[in-house]
Amino acid sequence: MAVGARSGHGEPEKRPGRTDEALGQSSGESAGVAPEEARSQATDGPAAEPGAATVTPEAGAGGAGGSEPRTREPKKQRSFWKELPILVGIALLLALIIKTFLVQAFSIPSESMQNTLQRGDRVLVDKLTPWFGSKPERGEVVVFHDPGGWLGETATADNGPVAGAVQKVLSFIGLMPSAEEKDLIKRVIAVGGDTVECKGNNEPVTVNGKALNEPYIFPGNTPCGDKPFGPIKVPDGRIWVMGDHRQDSLDSRYHQDLDKFQGTVSEDEVVGRAIVVAWPVNRWSTLPVPSTFDQPGLSAAAAVAPPALGLAGAVPLVLWRRSRSRRALEEQAATKAATRG
Questions:
Q1: Strand 285-286 and strand 270-279: pairing?
Q2: To bridge 246 with a disulfide, which of 37, 221, 297, 319 should be the other Cys (CB 3.0-4.6 Å)?
Q3: CB pairs under 8 A, 24+ apart, for 204-212?
């Protein structure tokens, strides 16, 4: 063998600038192992011995072990035009609930409640408290359905198909009064159990014998000079109503002969109490109960209270006196029997 000859099984020569990986690859090639096979053994071969370091390819790293990262795309928001019908639907549903259970707007169609209310005013009517058993009270301004024959056959104004359709939609949700419903608005003067009367001329209206001081009556009107009535006993569950413009109001006075109830209105026909004038803005005001309806003795229940209380107090006293008299007679009889014995 020639001197200086290298054996094929010797260590590979390290050249300047050559890495160990390259040297290993060269060694593998020299050992007769294909590059692909060597890589497979490096990654898919037997488990490493304990203590041996393992390397996991990082996401996004290049090479055979790397993979592109999965980025989550941001949730795409609905466009405004797709959300608009949902918002409109929710608003309509809330308006319908408010109209049905809370408040409803009504328009004043005539001058029968002047000067408290003017034609064209919009009032808000409380529909919530009747659900909790609240009943109409004296002095309140209430809206009620036509009891039958009060309005007669009134012609409905034709506003055209478009305006009519808009009014139907708005009245359905309570933003406008209905053109088809026949409702009236008056002031409650007397309730069930009361006796109401007005003798005419300039005599005041009386409730259970108490005269009403009515500053809300239209200037120049008399309490009932054009239509005296009574005395009328208001049946239970009904009310006697009158307009504040007494000479321009077809109220309970003018319907006494309509049926057996003498012009009174059933509480079941009452929609609710008008609580505020909401429109126009310059006429905004509340509708409180006048102080004349708070005067002592006005209530029919209060009028019968003293006799009832007197009777309730007298009954125990009479029973006590009878019991005492009976015991005295028994004692006298016992004394006489003992004396004879």
A1: antiparallel
A2: 221
A3: 205/242, 207/138, 207/298, 208/297, 208/298, 208/299, 208/300, 208/303, 209/297, 209/303, 210/295, 210/297, 210/298, 212/292, 212/293
DSSP result, 174-190 = TSS--SS--EEEEEEEE
Dihedral class, residue 139 (left if φ above 0, else alpha if ψ from -120 to 50, else beta) = left
- Burial string for 203-219 (b: 16+ CB within 10 Å, else e) reads ebbbbbebebebebbbe
Question: Mutual orientation of helices 35-44 and 20-30 as an angle, nearest 10°?
Answer: 110
Contacts 24+ apart (CB under 8 A), 291-297: 292/139, 292/212, 292/213, 292/214, 293/137, 293/138, 293/139, 293/212, 295/210, 297/208, 297/209, 297/210
| Residue 196 φ then ψ, to 5° | -115, 145
Q: pLDDT band at residue 263, thresholds of 50, 70 and 90? A: very high
Give the C-alpha separation, 216 to 140, whole Å: 12
Q: Report the percentage of the chain scoring pLDDT > 70.
A: 56
Sheet holding 210-211, edge to edge: 210-211, 206-207, 195-198, 229-233
Q: What is the pLDDT of residues 281-301, one digit of tens each?
A: 999 999 999 999 999 888 754
- Measure CA of the first residue to CA of the last residue in the chain; give whole Å: 173
pLDDT at 51: 44
For the ranges 92-96, 201-205, 269-273, 298-302, the lowest mean pLDDT is seen at 298-302
Q: Using the structure block, give the residue that is written with the tokens 């590979």.
A: 12
Confidence of residue 268 (pLDDT cuts 50, 70, 90): very high
pTM, 2 dp? 0.59
Half-sphere exposure at residue 20, Cβ-oriented, CA atoms within 13 angstroms: 0
| Token pair of 285 as six digits | 């005001």
Q: Distance (Å, rounded) from C-alpha 149 to C-alpha 300?
A: 30
Residues in the chain: 341
Q: Which residues are catalytic?
A: 112, 186
Strand, coil or helix: what is 230?
A: strand
